[in-house]
Amino acid sequence: MSINIIAFLFFLFGYVVNMYYISILYHRGLTHKAVLMGPKLMAWLGMTGSWFTGLDPKTWACMHRLHHSHSDTQLDPHSPTTYGVLGVWVGQYKSYLNIQKGLLKDEKEFTDIVSDIPFDVSFIYKNNLSWLPYLVHGAVAFLLGNIFHHFWVGAGYFLGMMSHPVQGWMVNALAHRYGKRNFETNDQSTNNTFVGLFVFGEGYQNNHHRFPERAKFSVKWNEIDMGYALCLISEGMGLLKINRAQKN
């Protein structure tokens, strides 16, 4: 097996792990309850989410719920209508930090939104250690690069595991500006096939904003939601349960 293939496989591993946390556990599970997590998985998410993604799960859920409440208005934490397509990259980061600060200060405008989440903002952020997960994954990447004597093996792992800024920008910017719409919604959400393929179904924002509590983001035969496939696999393994009260 060539070293380039090995590097790609490490990237793919990191990318899938990251997407599983963000799309399945953070988004469909924690934020929308479209998949139901038992107490053990919920506790695991609270303990490990920040370490695997570099993003606090409670802060992420709060920001996303605010996004749905104020989609593509001035109160949306990451809309291209406010920030512009390229500006969403910085806007989403600033909003995340502001929301996290509000949660840490117990400001009701934020804490009330996520009062159902049974864990606090990670101690990493309470102690100004937001850089620590990146350092840990950087160390793993450095170790892999030395084991395989190839820079791109370690870099592939790191870029895959820490790919959330690119994923978030693609969904929040491109899938709220470019694409088709299956439903009339009170926002600018679209179904962007390119984003849908690369971000495990998250690009079908118009479908998702029409049915936010559905675990399956695709509605047509030619819309591929790999995230929902992971939901089905996880359910088969007994890790979680798809909320069948919502029609899929």
Q: Could you explain how this protein is built, in words?
A:
The chain is mostly helical and 248 residues long. It has one domain. The protein has helices at 3-31, 39-53, 57-69, 80-83, 88-104, 108-111, 123-126, 132-148, 151-161, 164-174, 193-198, 205-210, 226-236; strands spanning 35-36, 241-242. A two-stranded antiparallel ribbon has the order 1-2. α8 packs antiparallel against α9 (151-161). The protein is globular, with a radius of gyration of 18 Å. The N and C termini lie far apart (40 Å). The model has no long low-confidence stretch (mean pLDDT 97).
Number of domains: 1
How much helix, percentage-wise, in residues?
55-70%
How would a textbook summarize the main sheet?
Answer: 2 strands, antiparallel
Numbering strands along the chain, what is their spatial order in the largest sheet? 1-2
Please work out how many helical segments DSSP would assign. Answer: 13
Overall body shape: globular
Which spans have pLDDT < 50 for at least 5 consecutive residues?
none
- Rg, Å, rounded: 18 Å
Please state roughly what percent of the residues sit in beta strands, choosing from under 5%, 5-15%, 15-25%, 25-35%, 35-45% or over 45%: under 5%
The averaged pLDDT comes out at 97
Order of helices and strands: HEHHHHHHHHHHHHE
Report the count of strand segments. Answer: 2
Class inferred from helices and paired strands? mainly alpha
Report how far apart the termini are. 40 Å
